[in-house]
Amino acid sequence: MIGKISGRLDWRGGDQVLIDVRGVGYIVHVNERTMAALPGVGEAVSLYTDLLVREDLLQLFGFPTMLEKEWHKLLMTVQGVGAKASMAILGALGAEGVARAISLGDARAVQAAPGVGPKLAQRVILELKAKAPGLMAMGGKLAVSAVADEGDAVIEPVAPAPKRVAKVDGAAQARAAASADALSALANLGYGAGDAAQAVATVAAEMPEADAAGLIRAALKLLAPK
């Protein structure tokens, strides 16, 4: 299993890139968001990967964080969602957006992904509603971006290249960590996973800059008996 690729970005295609790792080139399929965040050709790049194995096909799919990779794997457990649909959903919403859409039961948000119809979007919501909180609770630990470590010496001295890696969305990582901490705290207080996830997703959307403590306070008010 190839879980991570670190090397030099040699080529960009429509939905795939070629990464040179010590003279061996790997074709890695990526979504629109990941493609937009990658550095220029010739620069260092690192992606977490998931290998799709079929009888007549081997495909690598790349993700900037382990969190997005895990969402990809979870999405593909839904009947009718293959790698293409999963990548489209993540490309449209990102890991954070997928978590919010599932927690809030927002099938329309999922349907915004190219090629995803209303029936499939509704199935994603229904089948992952109970599974999403578990992954959301791990969000803070999994939201760290893949980084090409200079110590790995994956960039061969064929031609000088800047030591820049894929852009890191620190704000998204901070939001994922805050939501995960808030979800964990609510679970410790005895709230059900589904109710806690929906409350956190709601207040996180309304308060994108809030830290974990702020999310917890707001979620508790939302969960309080009327």
Question: Short description, anyone?
Answer:
The protein has 226 residues and is α+β, with helices and mostly antiparallel strands. 48% of the residues lie in helices and 17% in strands.
Largest sheet: 5 strands, mixed, barrel
The count of β-strands is 5
Work out the oligomeric state of the chains in this entry: single chain
Rg estimate, integer Å:
19 Å
Give the terminus-to-terminus CA distance. 51 Å
Q: Which CATH class of the largest domain is shown?
A: Mainly Alpha
Beta-strand residue fraction: 15-25%
* Adjacency order of strands in the biggest sheet: 1-2-3-5-4
List the secondary-structure elements in sequence, H or E: EEEHEEHHHHHHHHH
Annotation field: number of helices: 10
Helix content estimate: 40-55%
CATH homologous superfamily of the largest domain - what is it?
A: 5' to 3' exonuclease, C-terminal subdomain
Describe what this molecule looks like in 3D.
This protein has 226 residues and is α+β, with helices and mostly antiparallel strands. It has 3 domains: 4-64, Nucleic acid-binding proteins (OB fold (Dihydrolipoamide Acetyltransferase, E2P), Beta Barrel); 66-137, DNA polymerase, domain 1; 170-221, Helicase, Ruva Protein, domain 3, CATH 1.10.8. Helices cover 48% and strands 17% of the residues. Strands 1-2-3-5-4 form a 5-stranded mixed beta barrel. The longest helix has 22 residues, at 83-104. The radius of gyration is 19 Å and the shape is globular. Residues 150-168 have low confidence and may be disordered. Residues 174-226 are annotated as: Domain III. Residues 1-64 are annotated as: Domain I. One of its GO terms (cellular component) is cytoplasm. This is Holliday junction branch migration complex subunit RuvA. Belongs to the RuvA family.
